Amino acid sequence: MSTAPSENELPQIPDLLLAHHRFILQHGPAEQKDEAKKQLLDTIEEKKMAPFYKYVTELLKLPFDQALFNKMEATNKEDLAKFDEKVEDAEQNMGETEVNEALLGKADYYAQIGDKERALTAYDDLLTKSITPGTRIDIVFTLVRIGFFYDDNDMVTANIEKLKELVEQGGDWDRRNRLKAYEGVYLMSIRDFKGAASQFIDTLSTFTSTEIMPYKDFVKYAVLTSLISMQRVDIKKKVLDAPEILEVISDIPYLEDYMTSLYNCNYAQFFRALADIERTHLRTSRFLHAHLRYYVREMRIVAYAQLLESYRSLTIGSMAQAFGVTEDYIDRDLYKFIAAGRLNCVIDRVNGVIETNRPDAKNAQYQTVIKQGDLLLNRVQKLSRVIDV
């Protein structure tokens, strides 16, 4: 496992880096799969994770080494027997606190070696006992990580809600802060980028949740979710000028170029950076891979809208030049977004001009009233037919 955690850190149980390697083998770029396989199997053997080895080989259809499994399983049985001895000794010679600590150690061991069902049973049993509020909260944090580890969104959702209740009842500052980080990751995984960005930005300066990801990854996700969900003025204040982001962003490939090129309206550079971000960060992320096409599409809309806001009209050629693409590409791409109502402009292909037609606030309110009024009239008509019958 990892080195011993500091006072403000939780142990990496389960080790979410293994879930990343498993994801790469399932969905990641082909050129990364061999290294991911090696890292995954080497760590499993090093940590003697017999149950997880069986789970992974079945899931990924990898060759199963029976001799290796037997060896790891024997080690697991020996270690579990030692935990049982600790529990028995605590029951006979110590108090309830020591008994619960021994039981928690055994539950953590189940989670560490990838025995999901026994780990959940052990943690659930502990939650029925008389334990401190802090220990109870930390157990539920572990249940959320197990949910992340096995891509079990239902488990994550249920335990995030449970954490909110427990933290509200008696969580200290560190646990409240940690909950924001966990919830940010969860919201990002379900495509609530605005909610995720808010949690990430709030937690940047006090981040201690290294059990779910390294700090650089946390910064990366803070930037990615902020750019797609925040207004330009907020991006400048909360992202571009944030000292926590500036401290490490140059160490994260392509991210600084991606962030600054959009804000500085260097759209050709932004399109190149977006392609690099897609290849390097989106395709290799367990949390964003499922939203890859959506994210790239929305960021193109953000860039197009940002440019169009500055003009009443501009030529297709000048817009194509600004983005470093062909006129045909701009024509096809804008057409899709205009037809879907995502961009307020029209294309005059004959004259080669794009004209913006941004509705003002009053017009937007008027259109909303019209739509809502039509819905209300339709419902009244349906109700009247029912009454007449």
Q: What percent of residues are in strands?
A: under 5%
Number of strands: 3
Task: Trace the largest sheet across and list its strands.
Answer: 1-3-2
For the terminal residues, how far apart are their CA atoms? 71 Å
Helix content: over 70%
**Residue runs with pLDDT of under 50 for 5 or more positions:** 1-6
The secondary-structure class comes to mainly alpha
GO cellular component, one term: proteasome regulatory particle
InterPro entries: PCI_dom, Rpn7/CSN1, Rpn7_N, RPN7_PSMD6_C, TPR-like_helical_dom_sf, WH_DNA-bd_sf
Domain PCI: 192-361
Protein name: PCI domain-containing protein
Structural summary, described in words:
The chain has 389 residues and is mainly alpha-helical. The chain contains 19 helices and three strands. The chain has helices at 16-27, 30-47, 50-60, 66-93, 96-112, 116-127, 133-149, 153-170, 173-189, 193-203, 215-229, 232-240, 243-248, 255-263, 267-282, 292-308, 316-323, 327-339, 361-388, and strands at residues 313-315, 345-348, 353-356. It has a three-stranded antiparallel sheet. Strand 2 and strand 3 (353-356) form a beta hairpin. Helix 1 packs antiparallel against helix 2 and helix 7 runs parallel beside helix 9 (173-189). The longest helix is centred in the N-terminal third of the chain and has 28 residues, at 66-93. The relative contact order is 0.06. Mean pLDDT is 90; it is low at 1-6.
Quick recap of the structure?
With 389 residues, the protein is mostly helical. The protein has 19 helices and 3 strands.
